[in-house]
Amino acid sequence: MIPTAPARGHSPRFSARIPLDVAGPFHLEATVRLLQRRPINRIDVWEDDRYLRLLDLDGDLFLASVTNAGTVDEPDIRAVLQNGRPTASQRRHSGAILRRTLGLDQQPVAFERLAGEDPALRMLAHSLHGMRPPRFPTLFEAIANVIPFQQVSLDAGAAIVARLVERFGRPSVIAGRTWFAFPEAGAIAGASVAALQDIGLSGAKARSLHEMAGRVLRGDLIEERLAALSTDEAMRLLMDLPGIGPWSAGVLLLRGLGRMDAFPSGDVGVARGLARLLDLPANRLFDYEDYVRRFGEQRGYLYFYNLGAQLLSRGLIHPIGGESS
After folding, report:
1. Closest CA to 53 of 61, 44, 40
2. How much is the pTM?
3. φ/ψ (deg, to 5) at 164
4. Which ranges constitute the DSSP H helices of the chain?
5. Mean pLDDT over residues 235-260, rounded?
6. Are residues 174 and 5 in contact, defined by beta-carbon separation less than 8 angstroms?
7. What pLDDT, in 10s, does the model give residues 51-98?
8. Is pLDDT of 9 > 70?
9. Residue 313: half-sphere exposure toward Cβ, Cα within 13 Å
10. d(Cα 247, Cα 162) in Å, to the nearest integer?
């Protein structure tokens, strides 16, 4: 049972169904794991075959739960909000957040077809069948999930973001368990650089995140402006921001704007991962940029496939053919 608790005088057991239609294929577990990256993620939780996330909807906190009662090819997505009685507007807002976060408007079939034609990717494409490219709900959340990961391992970056959430996120205790909403830009802009360093950010990263939070809060950096630009134009604008290089800009375009024609350049981990997928010798120089270009406007999927391969190897994703959501 999903934990529930009273909120602002509402019934503790009340839950509101959120319409969340999606055409197959859709691999919920794989998609959530890509969003989560590591299980220590305090925001995007995969537990008991369901996706759980605390949403701040117009100041009210609700626990969203998403499950698939169908199959990957014929999904039957059940989404509910708990911890209060949401208004019609809040239900619509939550549905929009979940659609974006789970990449429900991205159809993976075209890339799966391309990957299936590549001997090195064929088995991986089968294992990750129905995986969607996830996006962070807001541009600021994307920024705050990119800067801590610069030039560190996924485990180290995830630990820093977990501390960021615990220090600056808005908590809600539901059935004795504490959940967090992701920190808003105002909370980070209002914090000191020293406080951001206390969670493990370097001085340069703390200053960059603080500055970016201020720009988002003031309206100097808005998603709508970036969304109106071509991918190349958006890349150039992002790289003019403090602490944002080619890799960070590429990840922001992928994970923040859903631009599947973007690919993070200069990523040593991605280069090594793709080399492993292609079964290349460890000491061979691999120009992965040439390989990535072969996938054209679908190249961003390679970034997620590389991460998906890591998560499969850790047993965090059940491949199609075994247990799957």
Report:
1. 44
2. 0.91
3. -60, -45
4. 28-36, 88-101, 109-116, 122-127, 139-144, 154-168, 185-189, 193-198, 203-218, 223-227, 231-239, 246-251, 257, 268-277, 288-293, 300-313
5. 96
6. yes
7. 999 999 999 999 999 999 999 999 999 999 999 899 999 999 999 999
8. no
9. 9
10. 22
